[in-house]
Amino acid sequence: MAYSLNVCHLYGDLMNTYGDLGNILVLKYLANQMGVGLTSEVVSLGQPFDPTKYDIVVFGGGQDFEQSIVSKDIQTKKTALTNFIEDNGSVVAICGGYQLLGHYYIGANGEKLLGIGALDHYTDKQKDHRFIGNVVIENEETGERYHGFENHQGLTFLGKGERPLGKVLEGHGNNGQDQTEGAIYKNVYCTYFHGPILARNNQIAKHVLVNALTRKYPDADLSQPEALKVGDTF
Ligand code: GLN
What we know:
The protein is an alpha/beta fold. Helices cover 24% and strands 29% of the residues.
């Protein structure tokens, strides 16, 4: 195939609740439909993240225990991941992964787990409560509606440069207070949706693939080769 993308499944062996791995299967399926090859590999504890090797990072959700291990290790990858994000690398981060891209996450037992602060949000704890259930949101720029399932105790508050993935129409979203769900920063898509999100919301997969292809092949005409027909295939 003339075009190919390489996905880093960040801590894929530890952070993969509710089938978040399915997001990579969806990316691969849809990329192949576009005539684009897609490979993936897990980068986990003690392994460096080389930003020049990857076009997309997928960072799934996790329980507090796994997050406490990842919180320590990810500090060694902080600069490389931040550079990748600042250089318009594409990221899909779910729940626990979303939390650890921000400044910190307060676990259910009150422990403060450091994130990498690549994005400006932070996540507080709820008092003996979790948000569990279906969510429907609407992205205010595109008008697209996304459907998902949330299960988190963390309350996330967005910061500088971040806009929500959508406005909450049903469910709780980031914190149950400001009607925001998820975050978009540059080419980073964050969300509390498990499910996996990309299987139910192909439009987001399309944005991620197109962003990654545009960055890797700036001269490619994405509307041209049948390979890159990104409209109707979704
Ligand atoms: N442990 C985090 C929380 O409860 C993230 C959960 C998840 O990834 N599903 O908020």
